[in-house]
Specification:
Helix content is 83%, strand content 0%. The radius of gyration is 22 Å and the shape is globular. The protein has 201 residues and is mostly helical.
């Protein structure tokens, strides 16, 4: 739990720094602003979380009541951490993977179709947390997630099968083959049934 909290308070500033570094060539001014904001956030947000945690712990040890302002700060920190770990981070990671696969699909001969499948699946999966947050879990959202998982698995399975055919079976290819099959089956289940449980509620 402590590792998850540390990661969640550092990830926002680190992401801004990474985006600023990526935009250094096309938009240097914007990249500089994002980098400065990321650096400040990387220092200020963890410091704020640590101060709130220390003050709360001390008041509990002394048997004192926690003030409403301190309680509100704790709730805000917990909410921001939950949004960061459950929505922001998966969306950015999957969105970055989707952009990479779709933009570089023409560069790899023979794997363009698989990259498009992985990129499209990643794009759908990146949108799913935002849609869950906005509209809640519904059969349609689960079906959309299932299509994304199945496409992702099909792309990985095809890429692994192509690598296996060209260069011989390796541990990585076998893992990708198994993972691709599992993801295709799980995605097909979600896409057809619209539920993530064997039994209906």
């Amino acid at each position: 739990m402590a590792t998850t909290r540390l990661f969640s308070v550092l990830v926002a500033g680190a992401l801004l720094l990474a985006v600023g570094a990526a935009l250094a060539n096309p938009w240097p001014f914007l990249a500089g602003v994002l980098a400065v904001c990321g650096l400040l956030l990387l220092v200020a947000w963890p410091a704020f979380c640590i101060v709130v945690e220390i003050r709360t712990t001390r008041r509990r040890k002394r048997g004192l009541d926690i003030s409403p302002r301190l309680t509100a700060a704790q709730r805000a920190i917990a909410a921001i951490q939950a949004v960061t770990m459950l929505i922001l981070l998966p969306t950015i990671v999957l969105g970055g993977l989707a952009a990479y696969c779709l933009l570089t699909a023409d560069e790899d001969t023979g794997q363009g179709v698989f990259k498009i499948a992985v990129g499209t699946g990643s794009l759908l999966l990146a949108a799913v947390p935002l849609l869950f947050f906005a509209h809640g879990r519904s059969p349609f959202m689960l079906r959309l997630a299932g299509v994304g998982v199945a496409l992702f698995g099909a792309g990985g399975l095809g890429a692994a099968a192509l690598g296996d055919r060209d260069g011989g079976a390796g541990g990585g290819e076998l893992v990708m083959l198994v993972a691709g099959l599992v993801m295709i089956c799980a995605g097909a289940w979600l896409a057809v049934t619209g539920r993530n449980r064997w039994r209906r509620d």
